[in-house]
Amino acid sequence: MALINIRSLYPFYNCDCFIEIPDDVLNVIRECNRAEKAYQRKLRYHKVKTETLDAENADAVTMRIIDKPLTPYEVYAHKQMTSLLHAAITKLPNKQAKRIYAHFFLDMTFTEIANAEGVDEKVVRVAIQRGLQKLQKYLISFM
Length: 143
Known about the structure:
By secondary structure, the chain is mainly α. The chain has helices spanning 6-9, 23-50, 55-65, 72-90, 94-105, 110-117, 121-142, and strands spanning 2-5, 18-21. A two-stranded antiparallel sheet has the order 1-2. The protein starts with a strand and ends with a helix.
């Protein structure tokens, strides 16, 4: 059992209040304090990097840095956009769809796709460009 001061955990306490807690709870509290200090260091470190940005972009960059969880609306919007994108890709010819999927979702290079299919790299590049143009037309007409 460990004796801790509640005032150290809750700064709004006006007086010292000591309680005994089990050692495993004390370990959890210490781990949380370490994680909070690491988080604050991370914010300070990245704040220096974002000070040169304008105010609008600095907030967006800061939100990405601190790994703020998405809101339910953002999760829903992301799912909708993903399903719309997949539906648009299925409207493409089979080869274009496969090449776009391989390049953007599987992170394959044009050369890797060309070697896998046994074609020239330029053929893959042109097919992806044309497929992206068709996707753009489809998505613009949808919205």
